[in-house]
Design goal:
The protein is α/β, with parallel strands linked by helices. It has eleven helices and 26 strands. The protein binds zinc ion. Zinc ion binds next to strand 14.
Length: 470
């Protein structure tokens, strides 16, 4: 009897220890997974607060969240939604699902449209457009298109916009999402030169896309993000595909900024994520371009992160890659490649990157074969790793488009890949967007500036910016 009591006590004791250890490990894991340890305006602190509030809310209000991926982090937003100048009065608030905007499905009716639910499918008609979203389609598409919170259905913003043909403008400072009707100047396929049938493949990568909106001189505030969407739409309308080099965390030590786009559910972060979704829906292929693209006192996109001067050892550098993939996974962003900042990395870093990524953009000194052409490595475990170089280099300044066109011609003549990268900001002053006729949003991309000229030239040569065949 006594022995049994002792045994039970022991079992109990062990269970408490094991449970306690589990809680500690889980908490620690979560921190190391999503949050950066950094000085300054640390996402560490902000991120934790955000997550804790969410967890607390779950316990207190017990919102019943029904969706296939049960790890979606739900947070209510106070953001307003408008149709041009008029408030749309919703019965339910907008919510963030792991940072992404979800609109209560009722918005369709509030805009004068109609909702028909057929099984798990919603047939929607609004703004003279008909479209469907399917709850069951969630797993395949990675991003949950429809979720239920407290049994109320919500639709993810990019599906709503794609189907309804409204044009959104997100104003983070005013905490407002405004829908507009599409203006007349927005692109149509009819008035642009299209690729010929059986075009040969060229490749373009839009470089250094990062959440730098806290920096007054940053490229990607709400306006810059809209310009990026216009650029993606332009490329799509011209029949082009493109790669997107995304930096998940923006660091600016001088301004004391560390901005992890996944750390907080804010309208700015949602604007950034919506823009990536929009680009992917418009022929974009997303990739990870380091975790911060800097170390020490360097600003993101200026600094290296994996070269021999970096303060981290190989394992720590590997963890930076892993952390970047975790941010992408948390945000349900499908990544298709990795690119070391400034192509700088040591041999072991390549070996590590090959563990997590099937495609690597690089002009690499370790695999001499890939300097000019796409090169595939067969790994022992049966995986294939595709290395993609950029022998046409990048557009150095706003005056460099003629040189780039010459380099592309030279690549064609010397059997090199027609592959380049481009910083979108170089064309930003030639992209405009704004309200016309009170309730329409128009945008325009000048014809004779860098990217349109490059697309014209490769189209004339019989090429098309394409997806890399793996
Ligand atoms: Zn870069």
């Amino acid at each position: 009897m006594r022995k049994t009591a002792m045994f039970l006590f022991f079992v109990n004791f062990m269970m408490v220890i094991i449970f306690g250890a589990y809680v500690m490990i889980s908490a620690q894991e979560y921190e190391s997974e999503l949050l950066l340890k950094n000085d300054g305006k640390s996402t560490d602190v902000i991120g934790k607060a955000d997550i804790e509030i969410t967890e607390e809310k779950k316990e207190k209000e017990e919102p019943k969240v029904t969706h296939i991926a049960s790890d979606l982090v739900i947070k209510e937003s106070n953001a307003k939604i408008k149709l041009a100048n008029d408030d749309i009065k919703l019965d339910n608030k907008i919510i963030f699902g792991s940072g992404r905007i979800y609109l209560p499905m009722e918005i369709v009716e509030k805009l004068g449209g109609k909702i028909d639910k057929v099984g798990e499918k919603y047939d929607l008609s609004v703004n003279n457009k008909k479209f469907s979203v399917n709850y069951e389609g969630n797993v395949k598409d990675r991003i949950e298109k429809v979720i239920y919170v407290n049994e109320i259905p919500y639709i993810v913003i990019n599906e709503f916009i794609k189907g309804s043909d409204f044009v959104p403008y997100i104003d983070s400072a005013a905490d407002t999402v405004t829908l507009y009707y599409k203006g007349g100047k927005n692109y149509s396929k009819d008035n642009t030169m299209q690729p010929v049938d059986n075009s040969m493949k060229a490749y373009i990568r839009l470089e250094d896309i990062m959440p730098d909106g806290d920096n007054p001189d940053g490229d990607y505030d709400d306006e810059g993000l809209e310009k990026l969407r216009v650029m993606a739409d332009y490329l799509n309308t011209r029949g082009q595909e493109f790669y997107i080099a995304w930096i998940p965390v923006y660091v600016n030590p001088q301004l004391n900024i560390t901005h992890d786009v996944s750390a907080l559910s804010t309208l700015y972060n949602a604007d950034f994520i919506y823009t990536l979704d929009f680009m992917v829906d418009s022929g974009g292929h997303l990739g990870i371009h380091g975790l911060t693209h800097q170390y020490g006192n360097y600003v993101s996109a200026d600094g290296y992160e994996f070269d021999y001067n970096c303060p981290w050892n190989t394992e720590e550098k590997e963890q930076r890659m892993v952390q970047a993939t975790k941010i992408a996974n948390y945000l349900r962003l499908k990544y298709e490649f990795f690119e070391f900042p400034h192509y700088g990395a040591l041999y072991d870093d390549f070996i590590n990157a090959e563990k997590y990524f099937d495609m690597i953009y690089e002009n690499n000194q370790y695999y001499y074969e890939i300097a000019n052409n796409i090169y595939t490595i067969d790994k022992e475990d049966g995986r294939k790793i595709t290395y993609v170089p950029t022998p046409a280099d990048y557009v150095h300044t706003e005056y460099d488009s003629t040189e780039m066109i010459n380099r592309l011609t030279e690549c064609r003549d010397t059997g090199k890949e027609l592959s380049l990268f481009f910083h979108p900001r170089l064309d930003f002053e030639y992209i405009s967007g704004g309200v016309v006729e009170g309730n329409k949003r128009d945008y325009h991309y000048s014809d004779y500036v860098i990217l349109p000229r490059i697309v014209d030239r490769i189209t004339e040569m019989g090429y098309k910016f394409s997806e890399v065949e793996k």
